[in-house]
Amino acid sequence: MTNELRTRGVLCSANFMPSWVKPVSAGPRSSVAEMRERAELGRELRKQAVQDIESQGYGIYEAVRELNERFGVAHYTPRPDGAQAPPFWGSWSWKEATVMIATALGCPEPPWDETTRSWWFNKNHGLFDWVKTPADVARIRVPDWGKTPQVIAMLEAQARWREAFPGDPAPFDMLYPLTIFGNRWMIAAGYPSFIDTGICLLGIANFLAVLAGERALANALADKCFELITSYGDFLLSMAGMEIEGWMGFGGDVSAMLSPRLYERYGNGFDARLFEFIKSAHGAADDAPWNLHSCGPSAHLYDVWARHHHRMNIAVMQTRLIPGQVARLRAALPVTHLDLTVHPGHFDFASASPQMVNQMIRQTAEGAGRREVGIHVFAVAHEPTDIPQLAANVWACYHAMEELEKTS
In principle, which of 262, 265, 306, 342 could form an S-S bond with 332, CB 3.0–4.6 Å? Predict the structure, then answer.
C-alpha cells in the first residue's frame, strides 16, 4: 500500500548515536592498504557495538529501522532515466571548499578526526589580520587551483580511495544528491557562500565586525570571495563527471549568526549574484532548483527568506527545527521541501516524554501544511541507561506518523 505521507513529502527519520562507541574509519590521507585496514576494523567494531547494545534488549535499533524504512525515505517520482532513488554516494570525506580555499591561501591545515570523519579547521588563525582596507583585499590572489599543493593532495587521495574501495564514487565536496519538492531528487553542484568563506579567511569575530561596521571593506571582501568561490567551484565542476540538475550555495552554515539586515545584504544579495553567475556561466534555467541552508536557529531570518530574490527556486532547505515556528517557515518558503533537524537547544529529544515527542512531530507536520517536510532526529545516548527513553521516543515518532497517515 502506498504511504500517503511519503507521497506528499512528509518524512521522519532517526539516527541512533551511542556516544561511548568511538568510531574507527578509513583516513582519506592514508595509503590504500591502511584505508582498507581501518575500514574493516571500523566495520567489526560497529558490528560488535550493535550486538552488545541489542543483547541488552533495548530495542533501539529495531525502532530506528522501522521508523526509517516506513517514514524516512521519500516515495520518489519515477525519473525519465529510470533511476528509482539517489545513487550510492560512498563515505569519502575531504576538506570542504571553504577550507580548501583558505588553506590554498596559506591558512593552517586542519587535523583529521576519524571518530567524527571530519576536518577541524581553526577559523581564528589570524592569517589575514593585516586586511584592513579594500586595497588590502585586492592583494589576495586567486590561486591556480590545479597547481596548489592542497588540490594535488586531494586528487591523489581521491585516487587512492577509489582504488581501495571500488564502486565508491568518492565525489567532490561540492556534489551531493538532494531530496527536493515533488518527491524528486537531484544531483546538485554547490558553491560556498560568502558568509562561510569570509569566516574561514578572517575568523569569526573579525569577519562579523567587518560586516557590521565597515561596509566598503565588507563589499570588497564579498567581491574577492566571489572570485575565489566561483573559480574554485568551476574548477571542481570541470572534473565532476556527472550531469548536474540543480545548485547549492544559497545561505550558509553560519547564516544564523547574521542579523536580518546583514543577511539581506550579504546572504540574499550574494545569492542573487551567484544565481546570475550560474545562469551565465553554466546555462542554468530561470526555474533551476536550488538549495538553501542555515545550520543554526534561524527564526529571525524567516522574513528575510520570504523576500529572497529567487524564493520560488528554493527546492529544499536544511535548518534547525524550532517547535512552534514551522508555520512561519512554511509561509516564508511556500513550495520548498523543509529538511528540519531536531537539536537539544530547542527540543531535548533524549529527555522529552513520548507524549511530547508525539506532539512535536504532529505539530511540525501540521505547521508545514502536511507536505514537503522531513524531520530528522539525532537520538544521542551518553550512557546505556539513556537508551530505553530514546527507544520509547523513536517509537513515539513512528506512532505520530501513523496517526498523521490515518488522518491524511
Answer: 306
Percentage of residues of the chain with pLDDT beyond 70: 99
Check residues 183 and 228 and name the one with the higher pLDDT.
228
Average pLDDT for residues 7-14, to the nearest whole number? 91
Q: How far apart are CA 369 and CA 328, in angstroms?
A: 11
Domain ranges of the chain: 4-406
Which tens digit of pLDDT belongs to each residue from 179-216? 888 888 899 999 999 999 999 999 999 999 999 999 99
Please give the class, per CATH, of domain 4-406.
alpha beta
Q: What is the 3-class SS of the chain, one letter each residue?
A: CCCHHHHCCEEEEEEEEECCCCCCCCCCCCCHHHHHHHHHHHHHHHHHHHHHHHCCCCCHHHHHHHHHHHHCCCCCCCCCCCCCCCCCCCCCCCCCHHHHHHHHCCCCCCCEECCCCEECCCCCCCCCCCCCCHHHHHCCCCCCHHHCHHHHHHHHHHHHHHHHCCCCCCCCCCEEEEEECCCEEEEEEECCCHHHHHHHHHCHHHHHHHHHHCHHHHHHHHHHHHHHHHHHHHHHHCCCCCCCCEEEEEECCCHHHCCHHHHHHHHHHHHHHHHHHHHHHHCCCCCCCEEEECCCCCHHHHHHHHCCCCHHHEEEEEEECCCCCHHHHHHHCCCCEEEEEECCCCCCCCCCCHHHHHHHHHHHHHHCCCCCEEEEEEEEECCHHHHHHHHHHHHHHHHHHHHHHHCC
pLDDT at 232 over 70: yes
Its pTM surpasses 0.85:
yes
For cell 530514546, name the residue.
390
